[in-house]
Design a protein that fits this description.
4-stranded mixed sheet; Adenylosuccinate Synthetase, Chain A, domain 3; 20 strands; 13 helices; 10-stranded mixed sheet; alpha/beta; 2 domains
Length: 428
């Protein structure tokens, strides 16, 4: 390591949680640096499946310190529910901490997002309805509630009252909704706040000292690079920074302390919600990928849009985020397809381009340029070394490495922890 960042190179749901789970065995600290309950990591250990939302993937290893950084968005009710679920399954939370600087999803954030999506109608962004936009807006406007405020009832009431002075006129005059009462809001979140009080800490200093001492710190983001607020397909983005730079913003770790950046992409592409998607297959191919890959949101259950692997996206994400190595997830989902197409560039406004245009309207006009490759028509799920993969599967991975210029360190060939191919020393 000692400080490694794992980020998604597409629109989220790439299998970052699986990669983090593989690496967490060697880590001292596992840290979420962005996003909130709008993100989900699914990890399978043995015959047990864990759908994680606000808890880092490292929680499945006893004794690992697992932190939520100050850049995350904490839904207290959702977090307590998730913790109770995991505790009932024997998961230990004695080494779990939440930054006091992390902002809190309040009931009025959820209501605002719901009302705003209804107002937008057909122009809606397609959020996960987990109130990330209103929360991060309040954070920037300095109306936010932080975890430090959440654990003191008097402070919480003061912050809510101040926020409602701004929110209630919006509810009444913009949306025709009755105003909210401070005490009602406080009552709704207070039981969860009391449960979370022992877990709130100034984790940033702990992490900074740990990095100084050479401890192994593993950072995991939520969503993917093309949902980043600044560099994604705006406005069809999340409200935080999933890119590796967000690890510094979301934890206080200095940029010079990051030693390795691992980009994770699926062997195909998926996205949730609206926005351009050049390689989308709104046909039987997309339906096959969706059903075989169980491509339904971990948090929302919504069906994901699916398509061929877009290497222009992966290439762009790798360049902009200085990826050292790649993790390719879910190769086995392509086992039944032949031929297999790979988007290597776009045709846009009469020109061929190899990188994603930052102007979303231009990106929406891009048409994929495909390379056709033979499928392998056999299961890859038992492979544990690259040499055990079918030759066509190896050729597929070689195209990815060649087109991106980044070596592949890990390949997922199934949902279980042991169903992975890891290059010796590639993740060290």
């Amino acid at each position: 390591m000692p400080v490694t960042v794992v980020f998604g190179m597409q629109w989220g749901d790439e299998g970052k949680g699986r990669t983090v789970d593989l690496l967490a065995a060697e880590a001292d600290y596992v840290v979420r640096y962005s996003g909130g309950a709008n993100a989900g990591h699914t990890v399978v250990v043995g015959d047990q499946k864990y759908a994680l939302r606000l808890v880092p993937s490292g929680i499945l290893y006893p004794g690992k310190w697992c932190f939520m950084g100050g850049g995350t968005a904490i839904d207290p009710v959702s977090l307590v529910s998730e913790m109770d679920d995991l505790i009932a399954r024997g998961i230990d939370f004695s080494h779990y901490r939440v930054s006091g600087s992390a902002h809190v999803v309040m009931p009025y954030h959820k209501l605002l997002e719901q009302l705003d999506e209804e107002r937008l109608g057909s122009r809606r962004i397609g959020t996960t309805a987990r109130a990330q936009g209103p929360l991060y807006s309040d954070r920037s406007a300095r109306w936010g509630v932080r975890m430090w405020d959440l654990i003191d009832r008097e402070r919480l009431a003061e912050r809510v009252e101040s926020a409602l002075q701004v929110k209630n006129p919006l509810f009444q005059y913009a949306y025709g909704h009755e105003p909210l009462q401070t005490e009602d809001v406080v009552k709704e979140v207070w039981p969860a706040a009391e449960r979370l009080r022992p877990y709130v800490a100034q984790v940033e200093l702990t992490l900074a000292q740990a990095a100084k001492e050479g401890k192994r710190i593993l950072m995991e983001g939520a969503q993917g690079a093309f949902l980043d607020l600044g560099y994604g397909t705006y406005p069809y983005v999340t409200s935080s920074h999933p890119v590796p730079g967000g690890a510094c913003l979301g934890t206080g770790i200095g940029p010079r302390q990051i030693d390795k950046v691992i980009g994770v992409a699926k062997a195909y592409t998926s996205r949730v919600g609206a926005g351009p998607f050049p390689a989308e297959q709104d046909n039987e191919i997309g339906a096959h990928i969706r059903e075989r890959g169980h491509e339904y949101g971990t948090v929302t259950g919504r069906p994901r849009r699916c398509g061929w692997l877009d290497l222009a996206m992966v290439r762009t994400a790798a360049l902009l985020n200085a990826a050292d190595v790649l993790g390719i997830a879910r190769l086995d989902i392509l086992d039944d397809l032949d031929p297999i197409l790979v988007c290597t560039a776009y045709r846009c406004d009469g020109q061929e381009v190899r990188y994603v245009p930052s102007d979303t309207r231009v990106f929406a006009r891009c048409q994929p340029v495909y390379q056709e490759l033979p499928g392998w028509r056999t299961s890859t799920q038992e492979a544990r070394h690259f040499a055990e993969l079918p030759s066509a599967a190896r050729a597929y991975l070689e195209v990815i490495a060649r087109e991106t210029g980044i070596p592949i360190a890990v390949v997922g060939v199934g949902e279980r922890r042991e169903q992975a191919i890891v290059q010796p020393g590639a993740l060290a």
